[in-house]
Amino acid sequence: MTGEKGFTLWFTGLSGAGKTTISKLLVEELHRRNARIEVLDGDVIRENLSKGLGFSKEDRDTNIRRIAFVANLLSRNGVPVITAAISPYREIRDEARQMMDGRFIEIYVKASVEACEERDVKGLYAKARSGEIKEFTGVSDPYEEPVDPEITVETEAQTPEESAQQIIDYLEKHGWLSHN
Ligand SMILES: Nc1ncnc2c1ncn2[C@@H]1O[C@H](COP(=O)(O)OP(=O)(O)OP(=O)(O)O)[C@@H](O)[C@H]1O
Ligand SMILES: [Mg+2]
């Protein structure tokens, strides 16, 4: 069985950038290869582990620290993990990186606010613009871009499949995944 080495693919990017979409494709591909993979998706985590938390800086930080805590537990026991939450603050992402020293792979899922707003998959940008939703990342709340991520996927220029393949290529190249 491949995937015995644990690692964390830490996705970060705006709402609608493509984190969930790409994570699903990666899960399919890893399962095809009989590799283990667990996903901690922001939307799912906010329904259970972080239920009740809001979107203030403090609550966002708490949410991300919980995700990092679980990702660390899994990845240090050989289970590869994908985290797919906006994780807007650099400082907290770096905290997660320190915690998972050596098996933390930061992936900037990059798309402009304009592109994400154009997609508006969940209709949230419209609500943010109208003021119905406050503290919306990229509109009325900060997003701090990664400075030196291991991978950047440009989702305005790529298909989801190409973005997923870029990540698979990285994992193979760096020995996290055996070649198919
Ligand atoms: N290269 C790409 N990778 C991922 N998604 C893409 C790409 N190109 C276009 N898309 C489209 O962008 C949208 C991304 O939505 P998705 O729900 O995955 O975003 P998200 O980052 O998970 O947002 P949220 O933080 O709100 O959960 C989808 O409609 C997807 O089809
Ligand atoms: Mg998502």
What does this structure look like?
The chain is of the alpha/beta class. The chain has 7 helices and 5 strands; from the N terminus they run βαβααβαβααβα. Helix 1 (19-32) crosses helix 7. The two termini are 12 Å apart. The structure holds adenosine-5'-triphosphate and magnesium ion. Magnesium ion is lined by residues 19-20, 41-43, 84.
Blueprint of the fold:
Layout: E1 8-12, H1 19-32, E2 38-41, H2 42-45, H3 57-75, E3 81-84, H4 90-99, E4 104-110, H5 113-119, H6 124-130, E5 151-154, H7 160-173
Parallel strand pairs: 1-3, 1-4, 2-3, 4-5
Total strand segments: 5
Major β-sheet strand ordering:
2-3-1-4-5
> Helical element count?
7
| Beta-strand fraction estimate | 5-15%
Radius of gyration: 16 Å
Low-confidence stretches: none
Give a short summary of the structure:
This protein is α/β, with parallel strands linked by helices and 180 residues long.
Give keywords.
single chain; 180 residues; alpha/beta; five-stranded parallel beta sheet; 13% strand; globular; binds adenosine-5'-triphosphate; binds magnesium ion
